[in-house]
Design goal:
With about 450 residues, this protein is an alpha/beta fold. It has 18 helices and 17 strands. The strands form four sheets. The protein has a nine-stranded mixed β-sheet. A four-stranded antiparallel β-sheet has the order 1-15-14-13, covered by helices on one side. Strands 3-4 form a two-stranded parallel sheet. It binds iron/sulfur cluster (SF4).
Length: about 450
């Protein structure tokens, strides 16, 4: 990034933006941390591939689950890939389902039910307490009330979901009508993640969102009035989005009393490259602008009283972010459905894409693509990785894994790079620089480079 870009970007910034501290954070970055080359953190299976086949993974997982303490909680994630239309900006694994909707949904649910039954027969798993059930996608509410009830009923019949379990799902505001609110209430859901992306009219137009901001806010208010925890996903780096507009969105959403906000950079992948290129969102300047948006938005959210609880998430007092923080609690994750990836102990596994998933699940096999066990070195780094991504890394974790001298040198280097900052009572926090470069920090831990 050059100075001219920085000055131009902030030329019309509102006075609330502390340009000086953003300038200092940028200037402090180590030379190897190049803004436009930043890559997000990736899971272990994406770093070095799946080492074992699906059947081998299932055998390994069966043995691991059987050896686990029957009182140990775990969470459940289910991927529901369907959407009413495929948004051109979206890089999620999701697709439009426009024909034979009921038949496709039923066929997918039948596979999920087979998976659920198989996993529940693993020794001890059906008795272990479930901390949260999280439905992600795609648009889980696209299933409709009948299919959602079928899915939640199957989960309740097979696993120890109870009063301690938080039921959460992702949706888009346009799907949240009165009938869907009723269906979710009957299903026991108490947490909603709404993919708002932006409230700015021009940005919403660019990404094809037809519902006006006022309609979105009305849906959020209805969900909050039900007593649910409501978290909002926003994307920064959208076409026509402005600094003033993004800060205004944060102000508006805080005034609406949303419980949490996740901030995601517009990720460019083969799924949305055409959109990103058409709108000029792939070059270095686009990434520089995104970095500065994150810096300013992080300042704003802190000023509004939200605390960072994950490198991408800011939480208010009621937001415990149960699903995203399962690694911090040392829990396992039972992931079900196409492309869903889970972990039991030190064994990670993943499911294949939709067509292969549909063909692979059977009465004796949950359709896994494959799996891998963490190496001793990956096990050693795991607590550090979890601590960093939690945004509040405790120095003791680094000392325990690296020894006092090496841990101190690393923390000092990251502090000098404005990637971490010390807080009161010995606590540390991931800065906006750290959120941007979390992937590079993890790579540094793994390779020392
Ligand atoms: S943004 Fe949401 S609704 Fe649009 S394709 Fe992606 S998951 Fe589906």
């Amino acid at each position: 990034m050059d100075t001219a870009f920085f000055n131009r970007f902030f030329s019309a910034a509102p006075p609330e933006v502390d340009r000086e501290s953003i300038w200092r954070a940028w200037q402090a970055l180590p030379p190897a941390y190049v803004i436009e080359k930043r890559r997000p953190p990736v899971p272990v299976w994406a770093r070095r591939g799946l080492a074992e086949s699906g059947p081998e993974a299932w055998a390994a997982l069966s043995a691991t689950v059987a050896q686990t303490d029957a009182a140990k909680p775990y969470c459940i994630y289910i991927h529901l890939p369907f959407c009413a239309s495929k948004c051109t900006f979206c890089d999620c694994y999701s697709f439009r389902l426009s024909q034979h909707v009921e038949r496709e949904v039923d066929a997918y649910l039948a596979r999920l039910e087979q998976e659920i039954a198989l996993w529940s027969r693993l020794p001890g798993l059906a008795q272990r307490p479930v901390s949260t059930v999280h439905l992600g996608g795609g648009t889980p509410t696209f299933l409709g009330a009948r299919a959602l009830a079928r899915l939640t009923g199957s989960l309740r019949a097979h696993f120890a979901v109870g009063a301690q379990t938080e039921w959460a799902l992702e949706s888009t505001s346009s799907e949240l009508d009165a009938a869907m609110f009723d269906a979710l209430r009957e299903g026991g859901f108490t947490r909603l993640h709404v993919g708002v992306q932006s409230l700015e009219a021009a940005a919403r137009h660019a990404i094809g969102r037809r519902e006006p901001a006022a309609g979105v806010l009305d849906k959020l208010a209805q969900a909050l009035a039900l007593g649910w925890v409501v978290s909002v996903d926003l994307i920064y780096g959208l076409p026509s989005q402005t600094l003033v507009g993004l800060l205004g969105d944060l102000q508006t959403l805080a005034a609406a009393k949303v419980d949490g906000l996740s901030l995601y950079e517009l990720q460019v992948s083969p799924r949305n490259r055409v959109f990103a290129e058409r709108h000029g969102r792939t070059g270095a300047e686009a990434r520089w602008g995104n970095y500065l948006l994150l810096q300013a938005a992080s300042q704003k959210l802190a000023a509004l009283g939200y605390r960072k609880t994950l490198f991408t998430h800011f939480a208010g007092a009621r937001d415990h972010d149960v699903y995203f923080r399962f690694p911090e609690r040392g829990e396992d994750c039972l992931a079900l459905g196409t492309i869903a990836d889970g972990v039991f102990g030190d064994y990670h596994y993943r499911h294949p894409e939709y067509a292969l998933y549909q063909r692979s699940v059977s009465a004796t096999f949950p359709g896994l693509q494959g799996g891998l066990r963490r190496t001793p070195q990956e096990n050693q780094l795991r607590p550090l990785e979890i601590a960093l991504l939690s945004a509040r890394p405790a120095p003791e974790v680094f000392v325990a894994q690296l020894g006092r001298e090496q841990a101190q040198a690393l923390l000092e280097a990251w502090q000098a790079g404005a990637l971490l900052e010390p807080r009161l009572a010995g606590a540390w926090a991931l800065t906006a620089n750290g959120s941007w470069f979390a992937g590079e920090m993890l790579a540094h831990l793994a390779t020392g480079a």
